[in-house]
Design a protein that fits this description.
This protein is α+β, with helices and mostly antiparallel strands. It has four helices and three strands; from the N terminus they run αβααββα. The chain has one domain: Winged helix-like DNA-binding domain superfamily/Winged helix DNA-binding domain (Arc Repressor Mutant, subunit A, Orthogonal Bundle), CATH 1.10.10.10. A three-stranded antiparallel sheet has the order 1-3-2. The longest helix has 26 residues.
């Protein structure tokens, strides 16, 4: 957060709906066409804005080819996804442990 108490395009970026889902979709579908991402995650009219934010923050790259726009995770995006997956595994493990007690 900065001095005004806001977090422009920092960790709070992931509080916006679909951001984590977009990233995790691309882990298994790197190079996916935008249209496939929309079908799999959401057809929300704000999806292009969300992709632009992720690109602005260096997490994805949008590349246009003859078939449409393809989406790729950057190295930073891959690192973030790895952390997200580890966090999910930790939470699942804790839930399983608490159910077994």
């Amino acid at each position: 957060m900065n001095d005004t108490g806001t977090d422009p395009d920092g960790i709070l970026l992931f509080e916006e709906r679909h951001m984590i889902a977009i990233m995790l979709y691309l882990v298994d579908n790197d190079g996916s066409l935008k249209s496939r991402l929309y079908s799999a995650v959401s057809s929300n009219p704000r999806m292009p804005d969300k992709l632009d934010k992720l690109e602005k923050n260096g997490l994805i790259v949008q590349m246009t080819d003859g078939r449409g726009t393809r989406l790729y995770l950057t190295d930073l995006g891959k690192d973030i996804c790895s952390l997200l997956k580890k966090t999910a595994e930790t939470l699942r493990s804790r839930q399983t442990d608490s159910l077994q007690q």
